TrEMBL record:
Keywords: Dioxygenase, Iron, Metal-binding, Oxidoreductase. Pfam families: 2OG-FeII_Oxy_2 (PF13532). InterPro entries: Alkb, AlkB-like, AlkB-like_sf, Oxoglu/Fe-dep_dioxygenase_dom. This is Alkylated DNA repair protein. Residues 119-222 form the Fe2OG dioxygenase domain. Binds 1 Fe(2+) ion per subunit. It comes from the Bacteria. GO terms for cellular component: cytoplasm. Its cofactor is Fe(2+).
Length: 227
């Protein structure tokens, strides 16, 4: 892992750490290739990468679940649908989780309590096509309040970290480039957040994508899960 010294690591807010350039280009490409292979393997099954249909309309992003599957219809995590099991959590993402959290805790001490206990049970892979985004929302589906670890690959995105009360200000806007790590937890674990926009044609050569952006969030689901 390499830090981007031209963009220093920043404590965006208590419990929110941004570490630019934490994942080097070679590792970015490897993660893209791994997740792409899973998507190909499960294409045409109930676990295929897809655009979720919400009450407000179809999401612009495409989602792939690893380890656990968030079932929007029943509003809970499940292990299989119609007999098809969720694709297993990638070992590479399990191995990256605690080092990522440790790096973030060096920037935001509020994350420190979870460094040695975090258990990476699932990952949500979001592919953002050019021109897409994601509205402000709260990740409150998990029983555990362990931090959410987020990796960015591909085009730059304007990420918005809001407050815990509503979708309105105050909020902090952060530009996430390919290879950036952002982690939120502690007092900001249940804060509203979203992606305002993706800046097209800003991805680095060799990251594994030709266009768009992949965001991988690594999560602990169960409160008492352990390695």
């Amino acid at each position: 892992m390499l830090f981007d010294v031209s963009r220093p690591a920043t404590r965006i807010a208590p419990g929110v750490a941004h570490v630019p350039g934490w994942v080097d280009v070679a590792k970015q490409r490897a993660l893209v290739e791994e997740t792409r292979e899973v998507a190909r393997r499960y294409a045409g099954t109930p676990m295929a990468m897809y655009q979720p249909q919400l009450k407000s309309g179809k999401m612009s992003v495409h989602q792939l679940h690893l380890g656990r599957y968030w079932h929007y219809e029943t509003y809970r995590y499940v292990g299989n649908i119609e007999g098809t099991r969720v694709p297993p959590m990638l070992v590479s993402l399990q191995e990256i989780a605690r080092p990522a959290l440790r790096a973030a805790a060096e920037v935001s001490p509020e994350l420190e309590p979870w460094v040695e206990t975090f258990y990476p049970e699932m990952a949500l892979v979001n592919y953002y096509p050019p021109g897409s985004g994601m509205g402000m929302h709260v990740d409150d589906f998990e029983e555990s309040l362990a931090p959410v670890i987020s990796l960015s690959i591909g085009d730059e995105a304007l990420f918005r970290m809001g407050n815990t009360e509503n979708r309105n200000k105050p909020w902090d806007d952060v530009t996430l480039s390919s290879g950036d790590l952002i982690v939120f937890g502690g007092p900001k674990r249940l804060a509203y957040h979203g992606v305002v926009r993706v800046n097209d044609a800003t991805l680095p050569e060799g990251c594994g994508l030709k266009e768009g952006r992949i965001n991988i969030t690594i999560r602990q689901i169960d409160a008492r899960a352990t390695l």
